[in-house]
């Protein structure tokens, strides 16, 4: 618990400094993919961040909505995560991605 | 795709699935599986002839994808399959089935007879492979079985005989009044899809005796033979075919279809 608190505090500091990539790395290391996507979406300066955010979000979607899993059958935690992820889809500026990735991500999310 | 799954947008899922068929088969399979998630009479037999054909074509594509994924060699080693079913391979020949996933639920049903477990399951590769294949076959069988049960209620491709005597009100009648070449092709296409579905049902039958009443038809040469309008013209002029409310008789030269074991076996299930 204490480690987690320290971890979150470190993420906050990194975000305040504009070190979004490092902050996202910390989230990903702890398997907090949706938090990582949120941080990466704050980084408006680089297309790489959007690309990484889209891949992380897709990975999270595949984890939750894999074959044969219905949204209504998910447990409460997964349902809450799914809602967050669907909300995040609306925040994506796909124009920052290459045409091919735009097509791929656009049809999957 | 994931937004459409979340919103249960069936039309969108079918469209995306069709679009992804060429270059992202796992995603296409996910789309189709969701688009047929509540397969029932209303979702399959309502709509125009074009809509029913689209839906049936999508079901055939779905069946083909399931068979392809089912037949993959060492599926546990394939990354797209790992992603699709959300399982992980661990060292020492074990596969980790994540709680809540499709394969985990099948495992739970088999091992614990439906009782819920709170932990991920670690299974050996041989067991995983058997579970994977039998679960996919069952899944496909359920979907196709539902379709077969209801497809006989489809009447939009049937000719309206009463219309010939000017006793039919075309505004209320669902049967076809313009018995032209377009209608003929659509009806033929629909029946070919039905035969393809029967063919897939054969694949699903894991135990001898299941679907025993359906004999295997080597249908693909038949489809390519029949769908081609050139061959149709060659084989039978449009003026040569006769119809009745339950049967469409095409005066084809059956000696040219020696690969067929028997077409009569379909009649219990299809109105060929």
Structure, explained:
The complex is a heterodimer of chains A (109) and B (272). By secondary structure, chain A is mainly alpha-helical. Chain A has one domain. Helix content of chain A is 71%, strand content 0%. Chain A is built from six helices and no strands. The radius of gyration of chain A is 14 Å and the shape is flat. With 272 residues, chain B is mainly alpha-helical. Chain B has a three-stranded antiparallel β-sheet with strand order 1-2-3. Chain B has a two-stranded antiparallel ribbon with strand order 4-5. The longest helix of chain B is centred in the middle third of the chain and has 27 residues. The two termini of chain B are 36 Å apart. The C terminus of chain B is likely disordered. The chains are: A mainly alpha (109), B mainly alpha (272). The interface between A and B is medium-sized, with 22 and 24 residues.
Quick rundown:
Chain A has 109 residues and is mainly α. Chain A has one domain (2-108). Chain A has 6 helices and no strands.
Give the DSSP E fraction of chain B (strand runs of 2 or more residues): 5-15%
- The secondary-structure element order of chain A is HHHHHH
SSE string of chain B, helices as H and strands as E: HHHHHHEEHEHHHHEE
> How many beta-strand segments of chain A?
0
**Strand pairing plus helix content of chain A: what structural class?**
mainly alpha
Largest sheet of chain B: 3 strands, antiparallel
C-alpha Rg of chain A (nearest Å): 14 Å
Distance between the terminal alpha carbons of chain B, to the nearest Å?
36 Å
Structural class of chain B: mainly alpha
Low-pLDDT stretches of chain A are none
Give Rg of chain B in angstroms: 22 Å
Multimer state: heterodimer
- Overall average pLDDT of chain A: 89
- The beta-strand count of chain B equals 5
Helical residue percent band of chain B: 40-55%
Number of helices of chain B: 11
Proportion of strand residues of chain A: under 5%
Helix content of chain A: over 70%
Average pLDDT of chain B, rounded to a whole number, is 78
Q: How many angstroms separate the termini of chain A? A: 33 Å
